[in-house]
Design brief:
Strand content: 15-25%
Number of strands: 15
Number of helices: 10
Pfam family, one: Peptidase_S13
GO molecular function: serine-type carboxypeptidase activity
Organism: Arenibacter certesii
Protein name: Peptidase M15
Keywords: Hydrolase, Signal
Length: about 425
Amino acid sequence: MKYYLKASTLLLLLFLATSCKSLDIKKITSKIDTEIGSDSSEDYFQGVLIYDLKSRDTIYSHNSNKYFTPASNTKIFTLYAALKTLPENIPSLKYIAYKDTLFIEGTGDPTLLHPYFKDSSALKLIKKHNHIALHLNHFKEERFGPGWAWEDYDSYYSPERSGFPLYGNIVDIHMTDSLMVTPKIFQDKVVPIDYIRNREEEKNVFYFDTSRKDTLSVPFKVDTSLTKGLLETVLQQQIKIVAEMPSLIKKTLYSIPSDSVYKRMMLESDNFLAEQLLILSSSTLSDTLNSGTARRYVLEHYLSDLKQAPRWVDGSGLSRYNLFSPESMVAVLTKMVEEFPQDRILHLFPLGGVSGTLEERFPGNPGPYIYAKSGSLGNNYCLSGYLITNSGKTLIFSFMNNHFIKSGAAVRRSMQHIFEHLRDNY
């Protein structure tokens, strides 16, 4: 009898605990339903998935298996691809020392002479040799991604993709006592007038209003002769262009920590770094540089279990051809913290109210609680990442908004109400 009473008591307590938890979840989801179903949200498309990492419970789901234009949320997939395919340090260069010549080819490394990283690891190696042969034919990629806006060619956020990028494929122009241009090779290519465009579309002629106080960053048009000229200028020695590498084993030169590039990409939503990271990933999989190789490999080998196979066409999310579901976003975010240390992953994401593209958005009270990647294109705003509740639980979420015509600020306010509700009550 005593055993029976104890068992009955335990069952009752378990039932009550489960009932209380169900009531709490229902109360939380009811609040989210109200926000999602409000009059202000009824004229655009929303998808939401909120997942409890520890309990493996889905807290809330709304259109989570539907496809959305993700914008820069695409960089979450790019980050995962890089984490799975790249070593701790960036593969900067592949080379063969043969007879009296150093043969070199790029890996797509975006950091060489980049204005932020200023890495010169490859230059230090090259300068040790008197005869340099540069191979560029292994880059098999269009300069722009599919679906990119053609008119963005002269915008800072749309540099060309390339196999041997230098200076971030960007020209920086600013005015001090005189016109300052980096790289200096473009000094006489800058026309000091106020003009509707920053650069001619098909050639490296730039326009700069000398009355502006800030720095103008403009993508330059990449070609073989320019890459050769930029390298020769910085090395102060002649370089020969070759059609192929010798048939010998290539060595790889490694440079800066990979995490420093990932963090910069995620915090600043840097499109150039995102595109080049996929090209860099392809350099570890094949002798040919092509971002499609990296995307296919990651989807086939690491993400074949996704319930909604994404349409993934670039690394940055500039293309509106990209299509991802909230469920796929949450799946990849979950894989990240299961396969790599959680502290490392959180460190790579913008922190709400503190850093990167979230510095002025989704602040905490009293402290920050959201680690997430935003994504915005005209009429679209998405946010996916991790939410740490006041009770210490980690929630993984993806909140995707497409086709709204009201302000993005209004959309974000609605999202913030939901996030704060989860933070305070879950």
